[in-house]
């Protein structure tokens, strides 16, 4: 891509102390087979390891694609995302964090082609290979996902893996996103909904990337409550943001209610329980919390972890991990 040629796709890659993985992530982008210009915006969030050096090495090899930036101080995940978004200039926006990677060489071409042919489409996403780093097993995402959904469906739950998404960037001014996004950690779901408000969503069944999952993300009971709280607070913000979209509110409110019920069930002390109950009573006054808790207890029958791990191990024998 020449200095004056506008990219068709801006790819955002945020990184922090990602020396073990970022080379694979970058390779998956620069090796894409495309007939249009692409820019890769790599945002290093003041890493203290060799991540900046690895980025510089790749940038020297692909100066026409890679546009690196290093924050002088650590901005955190959401701050780093927002700073990267503001630098995008492409017609479309794709995402790939430094610990994930794409392996299908025509991923960008396929998504761009569809969106060029369907101007009403605001978002596309695809199936991914989940890679469990702790035991090196695999699974596939989005079993049974329908090819076309809309914002109403998305308001009820999020089927989109962030590293699979492509947005029609120009539908939103990325330099003037809601100010509260600086405070909420679940940037991806907010972005999906903001773009879905402007058009259709299409899903590709073909896996095109690898999404790493780490044992450190496994929820303990205390950790689960905090994750649920993050999921609730972002929906609380979105309920306010979409107050003028009555078709969206029921799904957001029902999802928020279900999250709060799970928080009541998961609460480790009176303070946590009281927080969830207060928000439940405000969001869904008159709710029969005991009935909802009983229903939740009946439906939550987690698959034994050892059996799940064994199933993934067997699947991995037949589906080796794709490489970028």
Structural class: alpha/beta
Report the average pLDDT across residues.
Answer: 91
* Major sheet summary line: 10 strands, mixed
- What is the β-strand count? 10
- CATH classification, class level of the largest domain: Alpha Beta
Radius of gyration: 20 Å
Q: Please estimate the helix content.
A: 40-55%
| CATH architecture classification of the largest domain | Alpha-Beta Complex
Overall form: globular
Succession of helices and strands: EHEHEHEEHEEEHEHEHHHHH
Strand content: 15-25%
Please work out how many helical segments DSSP would assign: 11
Low-confidence stretches: 216-222
**What is the end-to-end distance?**
22 Å
**What count of structural domains?**
2
CATH superfamily of the largest domain: Spore Coat Polysaccharide Biosynthesis Protein SpsA, Chain A
Reported by name, the CATH topology of the largest domain is Spore Coat Polysaccharide Biosynthesis Protein SpsA, Chain A
Write the layout of secondary structure elements.
Layout (H helix, E strand, L loop, with lengths): L8 E7 L6 H9 L7 E7 L6 H11 L4 E5 L5 H10 L6 E4 L5 E2 L4 H11 L3 E12 L4 E4 L7 E2 L1 H6 L9 E3 L18 H10 L3 E14 L7 H21 L7 H18 L3 H14 L5 H11 L5 H14 L6
Parallel strand pairs: 1-2, 1-4, 2-3, 6-10
Antiparallel strand pairs: 4-9, 5-10, 6-7, 6-9, 8-10
